[in-house]
Amino acid sequence: MLLSIVIPIHNEADNLRQLIEELRRQVPSDLDLEIVFVDDGSTDNSRDILIELAKNIPEIKVVALSRNFGHQAAIYAGLEMARGNAVITMDADLQDPPECIPKFIEAWKAGNKVVYGRRIKRENDSWFKRISARAYYRLLTVSSNVSIPENVGDFRLIDRQVVDCLNQLPRKEPFVRGMIAYLGFGQSFIDYDRPKRQHGETKYSVSKMFSLALDGLLSYSMMPLKIGLLLGILSIGTGMFFLFYIIWDTLFNNEVYPLYKWLVVVLFMFTGLLFILIWILAEYVSRTYRQNQQKPLYVIEKTFEAEP
Ligand code: UDP
Ligand code: MG
Hints:
Blueprint: E1 2-9, H1 16-26, E2 32-39, H2 46-56, E3 60-64, H3 71-81, E4 86-89, H4 101-109, E5 114-121, H5 127-143, E6 152-159, H6 160-168, H7 176-183, E7 187-193, H8 206-220, H9 227-253, H10 259-293
Parallel strand pairs: 1-2, 1-4, 2-3, 5-7
Antiparallel strand pairs: 4-6, 5-6
């Protein structure tokens, strides 16, 4: 059995040696090991170090991307290169503890095709990251139509069958965990405390984090497109309420309303109509968008039939 470990690298020169040592220590000896490093356009000497390592250590393979394409793209690139019966993806900074690897493998051997690492504590992350992550996971769970597990990042093991599904996708969305949740298969969780980054600074700038968050939301939720409907109903409802009110007041109380008050009411109703028209457009857009994503409509895990 071959185990592949895919690790995206963006300027991680100081972490590489310790990482490799830890990995070799943790992987059970009955498995063959392959470590696929994806150099995602590093500007330090990570690439040279990796190439040097690959010359001397047969387990190490290097995929060098032509520039910085981002963490998620790098993971896809590594998955394409990996040959293992199971593939673990993890970060290079030892925030995904290699001690979990034996547990991942146990869960995989027990028949789970997706094993997630789940962060139970994130005391070492900044308060901004903790709060934003929490709010984001909630929003994603509430709004998306596949259930994307909470507190789960890109530290996970996936079986060859899932890797093949990912590799065959005609269009890859840059939010790997969403796609994996979409594909399904039996899954389990390994809980761990997220330690501090070993060396260097986070490579996820706020803008990169934001764009990943947006990718996740927009690819797996059509909820933002429905806002037009909600606003439309609210606006028309408000308009109607006030219209009836001033008609009643005029008829039965002989109250005289100046023209601008009538206009405000009419304005509410017309704005509402516009919102609804926008929502109708959005529904068409969402259908084109879904088609364009080219997600597989279904995934077959196994077929059963009687022996002839
Ligand atoms: N990374 C990458 N490309 C990028 C940003 C990050 O390949 O554009 C890699 C990085 O080298 C690390 C992993 O993705 O191995 C996770 O990044 P980081 O630890 O900076 O993220 P954080 O843990 O702060 O969320
Ligand atoms: Mg990190």
